[in-house]
Design a protein that fits this description.
The chain is mostly helical. The chain contains 20 helices and no strands. It has helices spanning about 1-20, 25-60, 80-90, 95-110, 120-135, 135-155, 170, 180-215, 220-240, 240-265, 270-285, 290-295, 300-305, 310-330, 335-370, 370-380, 385-390, 395-425, 435-450, 455-490.
């Protein structure tokens, strides 16, 4: 039955690609209609579900279940903390931080909800707090529910590392039939939609960055060449395996990201950045419950739909990809170690990233050049490179950011090809090279086709559409995980005894 997952998911993805080529207008109208209905009528479910995932994850870490090891009781982690955190950060955030680190705070600053005056001090504080919120603990809680479930049932209970395996306590042997096939197929499709959107954004940003230092012709032609070059790079990386390729790239990511972060922190308005970091962190922690559950129905609902609900749905659509990858690198860790490590470390680095680049952008926009924010929002893919124009060694920073962006691009695509091949190879942790190459070609082709047909927005909407049924899947997954751990601890005896 698992062969059906490969065939069914590949055919459906290729049909969407074909629709992007031959019927771009119709596909755009369809995705817009479905997306609009979901956001209008069930958007609240995304907020409530993400909050429940956060409570569930922290509850597991602080409960007796936290002592359960993802593997045998005496098993040790496969990767060091640095290697593990590097791969977590690269797979979970990656290109998005480079793309939105400047653009999102500036967007909220100029266009906050209607009850806040744009370009005001209140709008600036709001912009930073909600940038933290959108990239904070909630995305990682969503990833944790997925990855923890897969890791527990695979490494602790000896089942294949498939999303369908997580439902054994609820479905029993039916996961071997059509129910399991449907769940895994949906996961593959959601993964493709999530990763292709990010690859498209990354390719656009690389194009703008290269165009700022080299006399390359702007436009989709250059973007398609960049996609082709990066495709070759991650194909090569995918052939080296998880231990060599992805881990090496992830370590390189972290070194480059920290180097760029520290440089901007030192040469930029350091005290201003740290004040923003401290103040925004306080506002984020004190308002976490309110932000988690508020759709702003009386004022600002349109803004919430465009930003928060979109992000929550996008994180959910990314969860099969990130969850399977994170599970594959987390064997041997306890649930407590896994949850607290995955929530706290990447989140704090993300907060520092937004405070540094967003804070520097605010220093420019509010005190040096009021027109900077408008430039950043009009061309969001070039916002980071526009900011570099106001800093020393601008060409060097641009080159470093391009290298970092390219490595993030390769890491994300490499991770995605591994996960897609694994999901369509009955959960094999050593999937065939041919399948990795096939899925790599499919995701790059989909990104290129959608950019050519003007369908990147449509794909983003389809990611949100795919997230709705997967939200329901994840809620049942959490219940299944709890049932499985409860059975182990209270029916089989406490772990380790």
């Amino acid at each position: 039955m698992r062969n059906g997952v490969f065939v069914t998911s590949l055919v459906l993805v290729l049909l969407f690609v074909a629709a992007g080529i031959f019927l771009p207008g119709e596909m755009d109208l369809f995705s817009a209609a479905v997306h609009g209905w979901i956001i209008e009528h069930v958007g609240w479910a995304y907020l409530l579900s993400a909050f429940l995932f956060l409570v569930f994850s922290l509850g597991l870490a602080l409960s007796p279940f936290g002592s359960i090891r993802l593997g045998a009781d005496t098993e040790k982690p496969q990767y060091s903390y640095f290697g593990w955190f590097s791969m977590l950060f690269a797979a979970g955030m990656g290109i998005g931080l480079i793309f939105w680190g400047v653009a999102e705070p500036m967007s909220h600053y100029l266009n906050p909800p209607e009850h806040i005056a744009g370009s005001s001090a209140e709008a600036a504080a709001f912009a930073m707090r909600y940038s933290f919120f959108h990239w904070g603990v909630h995305p990682w809680a969503i990833y944790i529910v997925m990855s923890l479930s897969i890791a527990y049932f695979s490494f602790r209970r000896g089942m294949p590392p498939l999303i369908s395996s997580c439902f054994y306590p609820l479905l029993g042997d039916r996961i071997q039939g059509l129910w399991g096939q449907a769940i895994d197929t949906l996961a593959v499709i959601a993964t493709v939609f999530g990763i292709v959107t990010s690859l498209g954004l990354g390719a656009l940003q690389i194009t703008d960055g290269v165009g700022s230092i080299l006399p390359l012709p702007p436009g989709l032609g250059t973007t398609l060449v960049i996609i082709a070059v990066v495709t070759v790079l991650y194909m090569i990386s995918s052939m080296t395996g998880l231990d060599k390729g992805i881990q090496l790239l992830s370590r390189t990511n972290v070194f480059l990201a920290v180097a760029l972060l520290l440089f901007v922190l030192v040469v930029g308005p350091s005290s201003y950045i740290l004040n923003i970091f401290t103040t925004t962190l306080g506002g984020y922690l004190s308002g976490l419950l309110e932000m988690s559950l508020s759709t702003n129905p009386f004022e600002g609902y349109g803004w919430t739909r465009s930003w928060t609900l979109f992000y929550w749905a996008w994180w959910i659509s990314w969860s099969p990809f990130v969850g399977l990858f994170v599970a594959s690198i987390s064997r041997g860790r306890t649930i407590r170690e896994f949850v607290l490590g995955a929530i706290l470390v990447p989140t704090l680095l993300t907060f520092l990233w937004f405070a540094t680049f967003g804070g520097t952008a605010f220093a420019v926009a509010r005190y040096d050049d009021p027109g900077f924010a408008t430039r950043a929002v009009e061309e969001v893919s070039s916002a980071l490179f526009v900011l570099f124009e106001y800093l020393p060694l601008s060409p060097v920073l641009t080159v470093l950011a391009l290298v970092l962006l390219t490595v993030f691009f390769v890491t994300s695509a490499d991770s995605a090809t591994f996960v897609l091949a694994m999901m369509t190879s009955r959960g094999s942790l050593s999937p065939p090279a041919g399948k990795k190459l096939l899925w790599g070609a499919v995701q790059s082709t989909a990104a290129a086709v959608l950019l050519l047909s003007g369908g990147l927005d449509a794909l983003q909407r389809m990611a949100i559409v795919a997230a709705l049924p997967f939200t329901v899947v994840m809620l049942f997954m959490a219940a299944s995980l709890y049932k499985g751990m409860h059975y182990e601890m209270y029916r089989e005896g406490s772990p380790g005894k």
